[in-house]
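Researcher: Please translate sequence to C-alpha cells.
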Amino acid sequence: ELEGIGPVRGYFVDVSPVAASLPPPADPPLFGRIGRTLGVASSGLPYMLGLRRSRRSLAPL
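Model: Translation complete:
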C-alpha cells in the first residue's frame, strides 16, 4: 500500500539473462571524451564567471 494512493499491485521482471548477454560497451575515443568534457565545461563557464544568470534567479517569486 502506498501512502495517499492506496493498494497497488507491483510487477517485477528478471533482466539478468538479458544483461548477461550484452557485450561490454566500447571505450569512447580520447578526442570524443575531451570534446564532451570541454563542451560541458564551456556551457557552464559563463555562469561560473558571473557573465550570465540562471533562469531560476531571474524568475519572480
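Researcher: Any highlights?
Model: The mean pLDDT is 84.
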